[in-house]
Amino acid sequence: MKKILLIASNFFPAEGGIGSYMGVYFYLRPNSFLVLAPKEGDFEEFDRKSPLKTVRSRWMNTSGLGRLVRPFALTCEVLMLLRRYRFHSIHVANVDSVPLALWVVFRFLRIPILSFIAGSELSTGRRLRVKTALRNSQLLVTCSRFTRDTLVRDFKVPADKIEVLNPGINPDLLNLEPDSKPIKEQYNLEGKFVVLTVSRLVKRKGHGTVLESLARLKQMGFNDFVYLIIGRGPEENYIRGKVRESNLESNVAFVGYVDNKNLPNFYNACDVFVMVSDNLDGDYEGFGIVYLEAGAFSKPVVGSRSGGTADAIEDGKTGFLIDSGDSIALSNVLMDLVRNRELGVKLGRNGKERAKEVTLSKVAKRFATVLNKNGL
């Protein structure tokens, strides 16, 4: 049996976009893979139940002085695995986390490499590492058409070297029956139009645009709304300041971190999911799994024409796309949903049907075809 090494610096039980993307491996032949991942969260409990054999490394996401020895230590760790298992190929989830020395090793040993490109790594200061990965990978898998086009246009990667594989959602989401009553009581949501954003609190996620649109609704005389902000991040103080400036203190609730177990209750409690990301100096939304997750709970979604969002939202069918930073357009969309609740129901119903087609199990079948076609 062919044995494949997956190197992933973001992997379960840690939560996040790239980590969720890697969930596709649980729906392939688990005995074919060995995963090298960091020691994060309650990984020991997770690994005991996981069908994937996982080796946990202290050098994957080390900090402090450990960063100085990380390239050497991680390279040695991978070399030991290569010697033990003689892998048929290697899959790399995060190309900007692989030391340059490892790429030299891969090239010397002539091991076929498949690398995932989400998009955010293309704007980092690690361009040399990323370009090395692009050059030495047999196949690149992108999460959206936008990222594929960026690779072709800006990095001169041949189009036939790239496959687009949109991320999928956990199929279990479709069978849940969330209990939103405690949330509605805690945040006083009864009778209110509830807007929800789930993301890290960073600049490009567009919280400022949402707040500007809601302030406009309030100026128009509509005040029966609550904006739930889920997540943590460096921009929290700025966003809180924006709330005060906009006179929205009574309309906005900062929920903080919510784990995947409880997140469905919040999706179920909202009337519309909104994340209108910006494109800041090439840092863009690679895809946006959260739009699909919200759709799984029959919620309409609103995003911006930034990065790969157009692959996640079917404009006019599962939700709406607006131009980045266009708070007026967003306020108009929100008011349409307030005035026409049937529109939200229709969009949400379509989102539910879309979610059924993009479960991880179905994405895995498409991925398996890609792997077989390319001998990876």
CATH C-level class of the largest domain: Alpha Beta
Q: CATH homologous superfamily name of the largest domain?
A: Glycogen Phosphorylase B
Can you give the helix content as a percent range?
40-55%
User: What integer is the average pLDDT?
Assistant: 90
Number of spatially distinct domains: 2
The ordered H/E elements are: EHEHEHEHEHEHEHEHEHEHEHEHEHHH
Give descriptors for this structure.
376 residues; alpha/beta; Rossmann fold; 2 domains; 7-stranded parallel sheet; 41% helix
Structural description of this entry:
By secondary structure, the chain is of the alpha/beta class. The chain has two domains: 4-168 and 359-374, 3-Layer(aba) Sandwich (Rossmann fold), CATH 3.40.50.2000; 172-357, Glycogen Phosphorylase B (Rossmann fold, 3-Layer(aba) Sandwich), CATH 3.40.50.2000. It is built from 15 helices and 13 strands. It has helices spanning 17-21, 43-49, 66-85, 100-109, 127-136, 145-154, 181-186, 207-219, 236-245, 263-269, 289-296, 309-312, 327-339, 341-357, 360-374, and strands spanning 4-7, 33-38, 53-57, 89-92, 113-117, 139-142, 162-164, 193-198, 225-230, 252-256, 272-275, 301-304, 319-322. The strands form two sheets. It has a seven-stranded parallel β-sheet with strand order 3-2-1-4-5-6-7. Strand 11, helix 11 (289-296) and strand 12 form a beta-alpha-beta unit. Helix 3 (66-85) packs parallel to helix 4, helix 8 (207-219) crosses helix 13 and helix 13 crosses helix 14 (341-357). The longest helix is centred in the N-terminal third of the chain and has 20 residues, at 66-85. It is elongated and about 70 Å long. The two termini are 13 Å apart. 41% of the residues are buried. The model has no long low-confidence stretch (mean pLDDT 90).
